[in-house]
Specification:
Length: about 450
């Protein structure tokens, strides 16, 4: 027996407990789709992982991520630890989304207008250079010098999570500036990884990777729009880069830049065709009382409607929208769980703080980001090379520069590949990253709260 009831005013079939469920679901959906949620989940995951790594379960935690997972087909085999699969495999999805965001921003976002983009670009470049120089000051030679790229990146999820807690006080243009700055920052980090953090290059494999990149470009130019085709070639590209010496996650960025940005229909054609198809839908009605299960013709027309709806949005928009939640609520928390577990020897904690790697990362993120972003922004505006965003003053920009010191995801990622196999240096780098992110987050929040008025509404 069907217990669903038909609401005559809306034409909706309502199940008995659906209204109650919707009341519970709506606030949850609003929270999940907000920028705040991803940042808060990342913070909570990092904190819980840090506690776990310093508890009685530390041994289990360490052993779990050294477990090998093997994929084998005949003689062909991929044999890596769980930690490696996460950092080189799962994080490729994160880099793919970063690439999609970069492409969109360059085409239609804050970075599309050269005049508008100049300030975040200059600020981001300086915000990468000064931290690297400060790290180099503490670690000029030896194996530790390889970590110069660690303090260069700002974690956009964390930083926006902090700003979201100031909703109602922070100008929207300031948030846009932070997003643009962090995206340029990510692009710089990707280039640093691709160019500097490579092992011995395999020219034959690099040649194959270039051919696959050209194939992706050809697919884009020839009008292939289905994501599955790009994902198949991207998988081959990832497998090729895995042993090429170039970090495999770069495959995600390369693929993202090849995703089409043109819709199948413009909005006018879409509107006209939708009306025509909806007329057909109405004409195909029978005595089925509005139940599509009994009307095969309307079902076929509905499939055509769905195809046209898909066609009016660009593949880049759909992929970025569809992957936002999986990356924010699955990929990044898993990465944090696998990498934020730093065993801290509290008896010798002060010794850790005096370690040159820890100091280089800590001062690079907290001081280097502040000086780089704030100082160069000030000079650029004074020289007329750029202008402040609307309704934003320089003091507020200093607050963003402080938040720039939150360098969680990308910084840990670079530490893992820069100090590969050097456990002690990885631990010291992570201590610096976590401390810097904590200090930058707290100081940035307090500073922005003190210099912004509650009347400036912001929703992110």
């Amino acid at each position: 027996m069907n217990n669903n009831q038909l609401q005559l005013d809306t034409g909706r079939f309502i199940a008995p407990f659906e209204p109650v469920f919707n009341k519970l679901r709506s606030p949850f959906d609003a929270f999940v789709h907000s920028t705040t949620a991803g940042g808060l989940l990342l913070m909570i995951t990092a904190l819980l992982t840090l506690i776990l790594a310093n508890s009685a379960l530390a041994g289990f935690y360490e052993t779990m991520f050294h477990t090998h997972l093997v994929l084998q087909l005949g003689e062909w085999k991929l044999d890596y630890t769980l930690h490696h699969w996460i950092n080189d495999g799962l994080m490729t999805v994160f880099f793919f989304v970063v690439g999609l965001e970069l492409k969109r921003e360059l085409l239609v976002g804050e970075l599309a207008d050269p005049k508008q983009a100049m300030l975040p670009i200059l600020a981001a470049l300086a915000g990468m250079l000064f931290p690297a120089l400060i790290y180099w000051y503490f670690n000029p030679t030896g194996e530790a010098s390889a970590g110069w790229g660690i303090p260069m990146a700002t974690d956009i999820a964390f930083a926006l999570g902090v700003i979201a807690m100031l909703a109602g006080r922070v100008p929207k243009a300031l948030v846009a500036f932070l997003v643009a700055l962090a995206i340029v920052d990510d692009l710089g980090a990707v280039m640093v990884i691709a160019v500097f953090y490579t092992e011995d290059i395999s020219l034959p494999l690099l040649g194959i990777a270039l051919l696959l990149t050209l194939l992706l470009m050809l697919m884009n130019r020839s009008g292939i729009r289905r994501p599955i085709a790009y994902f198949l070639v991207a998988t081959l590209l990832w497998l090729t880069l895995l042993d090429s010496g170039v970090h495999a996650t770069i495959a995600g960025v390369i693929t993202a830049f090849m995703i089409p940005t043109l819709p199948q229909y413009n909005t006018q054609a879409f509107s006209r065709q939708m009306r025509e198809v909806l007329d057909e839908f109405d004409q195909a009605a029978n005595d089925s009382s509005g139940n599509l299960l009994r009307n095969h013709q309307q079902f076929e027309i509905l499939n055509r409607l769905e195809h046209k709806v898909q066609g009016v949005a660009t593949p880049l928009q759909r992929l970025e929208h569809n992957l936002h939640l999986p990356v924010a609520f699955l990929v990044l928390p898993i990465f944090a769980f696998a990498n934020a577990g730093v065993p801290i020897d509290f008896a010798h904690f002060m010794d850790s703080l005096s370690h040159p790697v820890t100091q280089g990362v800590l001062y690079g993120l907290v001081v280097g980001k502040l000086i780089g972003i704030a100082l160069v922004s000030y000079v650029a505006v004074k020289l007329g090379l750029a202008k402040l965003p609307q309704d934003v003053n320089f003091t507020q920009l200093v607050g963003v520069a402080l938040l720039g010191g939150i360098g969680f995801t990308m910084s840990i990622f670079i530490a893992e590949i820069g100090f590969q196999g050097q456990t002690e240096m990885i631990v010291q780098a992570k201590i610096g990253i976590l401390l810097a992110s904590l200090i930058a987050g707290i100081v940035g929040y307090v500073f922005l709260k003190s210099v912004t008025a509650s009347k400036t509404a912001t929703k992110i």
